[in-house]
Design a protein that fits this description.
heterodimer; A: 121 residues; alpha/beta; 3-stranded mixed beta sheet; two-stranded antiparallel sheet; 3 helices; 18% helix; B: 168 residues; alpha+beta; 6 helices
């Protein structure tokens, strides 16, 4: 579990990747892009080792900056986009079990959350 | 982010004039196009800039002003001691030389701050999201609930520690 000092704000959208980005499924349907996520803003900071790294905004929000020296954050910390053409499985009451050709949306969503909070450039 | 994307980002940064790159944050507008970066002046407080611009730009810029210099953290707390040593050695070069004015990461203060209280099962979900979904058939509702559940798992649910001494 991650203990957040400040809430994380996520902007998620469901998009037709084929129509919007030309990322269409193959005939086998196995190479579909399920989704993606990026930090909405990245900030350069010098670490203890003297190296400059870019920090995602979700991490910046958790840091203790000296008073008056906090950087300006944008409205969203994380941008997520999921493919409306992907065959996602959602855990809902009275739903059947996941099928072999389905992708567990919960797993994908957790992956995207964590990847955007732990990514340094 | 893919490694190639990260390399592209670094390549783009290297093309920027030093004064601009030193203070610039970047907005990414789409997860599908992380290579498209929009420079943003995120250090609006000019006092912050001038504070850091006064530092030596010879590659020995790192000067930490944290409160770990009393010497009491040597020995028992190895992490604090390591950090202290790093802070006092100012001869390390910055990996990107034009970042002479990038602010210092407050990791030392953050890591040494009192531990946060563990979340309770009923605590507010710390991950808040806004979903843009125009699909029918209950899909948006299912996605909404699952995104909430994913955020709840990340911020609320403690991992079960397996492989304890009794299990081994």
């Amino acid at each position: 579990v991650i203990f957040f000092k400040s809430p994380i704000y996520v902007n998620a959208s469901l998009t037709d990747f084929c129509a919007t980005y030309g990322q269409c499924n193959s005939s086998a349907g196995t190479d579909v892009i399920l989704g993606g996520a990026v930090p909405a803003r990245t900030f350069p900071l010098v670490d203890n080792d003297g190296v400059v790294r870019y920090y995602p905004q979700a991490v910046i929000r958790q840091m203790d900056f000296p008073p008056g020296e906090s950087p300006q954050c944008g409205p969203s910390d994380i941008l997520m986009e999921f493919n409306s053409k992907a065959n996602f499985f959602y855990q809902k009451p009275n739903t059947t079990t996941i099928q072999p050709d389905q992708f567990d949306f919960l797993t994908v969503a957790i992956h995207e959350y964590v990847s955007c909070m732990t990514r340094l450039i | 982010m893919r490694k190639s994307t990260a390399l592209r980002v670094l390549y783009l940064i290297s093309l920027l004039p030093p004064a601009l790159a030193a203070l610039t944050c970047y907005d990414i507008t789409s997860p599908m196009h992380p290579e498209i970066l929009t420079p943003v002046d995120c250090w609006a407080d000019f006092a912050v800039r001038t504070k850091y611009t006064s530092l030596d730009d010879s590659g020995k810029k790192y000067k930490h002003t944290g409160n770990g210099g009393s010497g009491t953290d040597q020995g028992n707390n190895s992490m604090s001691a390591t950090n202290h040593n790093e802070h006092t050695s100012s001869s390390q070069n910055v990996n990107l030389p034009f970042f002479n004015f990038a602010p210092e990461a407050p990791l030392y203060e953050t890591f040494n701050a009192p531990a946060l209280a563990a979340p309770t099962w009923n605590a507010d979900n710390k991950i808040k999201f806004q979903l843009d979904c125009r699909q029918g058939g209950g899909l948006c509702d299912a996605m909404n609930q699952t995104l909430y559940l994913a955020g709840w798992y990340v911020s609320q649910v403690k991992a079960i520690i397996v492989g304890s001494a009794n299990d081994r």
